[in-house]
Amino acid sequence: MIEPPIIVGISGGVDSMVLLHAMMVNDYALIAAHFNHKLREESDQEAEFVKKYCLNAGLPFRQGAGDVRSYAEESGLSLEEAARILRYQFLFKIAETEGAGAVAVAHHADDQIETVLMNLLRGAGAKGLAGMRAVSVPNPWSDTIPVVRPLLEVDKEELIAYHSENQLPLVEDSSNADETFFRNKVRHSLLPRLESLRPGIRQRLSQTAQIMMAEDQALEYYTDLTWESCLSSKGGSYLQLSRDKLLENPVAIQRRIIRKALAALRPDFKDLRFQNVEAALDFVRDPSRKSTNWVAKVNISQSPRKVVLSTWETDLVKDQFPQLAEQREISLAEPGKKDLGNGWFLDFHVIDYKPEMFEGLEIPGEDFLVWMDQAGITSGAVLRVRQEGDLIQPLGMGGNSMKVSDLMINEKIPAPYRADWPLVASDKGILWVPGGRLSRLASITEDTQAVVEFRFIRQKT
Fold first, then answer.
1. Which of 52, 188, 311, 450 could share a disulfide with 237, CB 3.0–4.6 Å?
2. Is residue 297 a contact partner of residue 367, using CB atoms and an 8 Å limit?
3. Residue 324 in contact with residue 330, Cβ under 8 Å?
4. Which tens digits make up the pLDDT trace of 292-325?
């Protein structure tokens, strides 16, 4: 029986060259794959170097490229995160096409230490502090093809020694020294400083990752057991939990149950944040609250004994969504709280922001909350209903436009509500479809000088 090949991500640096060589000498069936991020002038030369090395070694070779900078701007991501997403999308596309058994990448022990520290600074929980796993499946790119990291317990010095001993060629990535990137700041400035203050910090961070990985696995085990006792019923677009059984568990398990519930309804949604989970639990703990819009177009409602999570497609509750049934247009010339009627308000205000905050900015991702570049909110900006011919340039579409009516369908905005659905518009076009997408015309970029927040809220009347 012929074993499926392994896709090896190779950049041409020390780490990936060592990984490729070590797997070659151990007779693995390999396909080398290189992704050109197009971020530096020498990127094309590096791609050519990797290609020649692999072909000379008799290895099947695949290559791809992407405009990382444009993707980052369109998606509101850092260059690091945009590059990572496009690179892994490429690797897993190759893996699916080639029927590969795994995707191998060259993360090593030093990378693991940096990742744990970076996640700590971001405020991560057990999963983040556990760092990367040697084998990860399912993962954000595939439910069946694992990411494998054979070098995860090997430190950088060992890789350099192996590289030298075997006289392997390489190309140096000049951006590895650029401290505008978060990881490079941690690698070149923060970790050395911490090491000088507390010698042995690297080993302790590595131990922390091992401890948190074991504890995360234990929590997942107990979450699965609790899930079975909490789940009352489930359909394609809803699930029902026992409110008492959910709340009788420790907070750590409650949080994981909420995450598991959303994953069951919206498996493609990957941006659930701590604040979102806490908002859901705050709702469940307050028996006076009956229904709320949450995230990912999921509504939460409750009775004294049950908590129901349902998607927008099926749970059409009166006044569940903001509407402009009476007022067809509301001026946004000045910030403030705008009354839509039926208990719904739009809260529009400037937030505390400076351009130097852009690199580490965590932009909220909620159905009825958005941050925009204030420059996009012109004096003629309004909140209004859809008009014939309305277009939007959604983020992530390379500046292409689409009809607002089509976007509403794609984003599963319920048909009975579309005619009165509030839109943020300016003289340049539609800036935001709540519950849908933000326009690139109002997206936050490195050039943004001020940021405004729009939040739809419902208050008891």
1. 311
2. yes
3. yes
4. 889 988 989 888 888 989 988 765 555 678 899 7
Distances 197 to 19, 39, 100, 190 between C-alpha atoms, Å: 33, 35, 45, 11
- d(CA 175, CA 40) in angstroms, rounded, equals 8
The amino acid that residue 306 corresponds to is K
Domain residues for the domain of 342 are: 329-458
305 with 430, same domain: the answer is no
- Give yes or no for residue 441 having a pLDDT over 80: yes
Cα 64 vs. chain centroid, distance in angstroms?
A: 22
Residue 358 and residue 411 share a domain: yes
Strand partners, 300: 292, 309
Comparing CA positions, the residue from 314, 316, 377, 315 lying closest to residue 346 is 377
Is the domain of 296 the same as that of 441?
no
Q: How far is the CA of 310 from the CAs of 242, 267, 315, 323, in angstroms?
A: 15, 14, 6, 20
Q: Where are the beta strands (DSSP E) in 50-94?
A: 61-65
Domain count, the chain: 3
* The model's pTM: 0.70
